[in-house]
Here is the input.
Amino acid sequence: MIIVMKPEATLADLTAVENKITNSGLDFHLSKGSSRTIVGVIGDKKKIAGLQMNSLAGVEKTVSITEKYKLVSRDFQKEYSVVDVNGAKIGGNHLAIMAGPCSVENREQLLEAAKAVKMCGAQFLRGGAFKPRTSPYDFQGLGVEGLKMMRSVGDEVGLNIVTEIVNINDLDTICQYADMLQVGARNMQNFQLLKEIGHTKKPVLLKRGLCATISEWLNAAEYIASGGNYNIVLCERGIRTYETFTRNTLDLSAVAAVKELSHLPIIADPSHGTGRWQMVRPMARAAVAAGADGLMIEVHPHPEVALSDGDQSLTPKNFELVMNEVKQIATMMGKSL
Ligand code: PEP
Ligand code: MN
Here is the structure.
């Protein structure tokens, strides 16, 4: 249930509402918007069903939410959220661009990629230091050494850095170096990890699971929000279907669905979404046209020798072509870098 307070509700009205909720053995989350406060009631379904709040002073209406996710839903908050990462905004009329190599391989590679993406307007350098590889014999990433490289290159070039967390034990270390955490497709339902991230204030990019429904994905986001961390950005990165020509099927309808269901910003990753560099450009255009708040794109100075995901990585030159087109489409969508 969510309780919408009247714009003129007083602090005493709000306190009375909070007391009634906690006295009934339930918990709540407050969302203070520009014009009104919304109280999300959390806890046992039966207890919530018996809660009578409409007669309390200052209460405008109560809305029961059928979906399990509440804090991330648009029933809870109508206005779309904007996540701010050191001044780089994701959501609203901003187009966020996160680009860089799949894996951090060495400083030269990272620096070259960083300079190229920065020149085209990216605000974030992406790169994996801890890699969740399908085969244990594939390159697993440089670990903490890679994180340090990300930080130093990000600082040198002037880019925020976003990098994946694979192991919950690395949370403090990654928080120390990264501006934004990435939860990858394979960990979207690692609920312990999501809960721990919920207890930090670090912005987090939550990728859609390989086979996750939109509802499962939003519930994963709810795990993070319910811990108190609202700095969540969703990323559609393709789902498993019966198609084999592409690595995954980029589900751009999820962008429109999420805009209907949730106030969280959503970006798209046409690199993992297709697995083919040739398809990144048209799918990047389509994602922005569908209303995505940004893009994550893999860029490597020499994709032919990349240690991971070379087939889907763009050269700096091709990234520039994509960005030139995407910027025009963004303008039509009322967004800019
Ligand atoms: C990545 O971004 O490098 C990655 C591994 O992505 P995903 O979790 O979407 O497969
Ligand atoms: Mn990759």
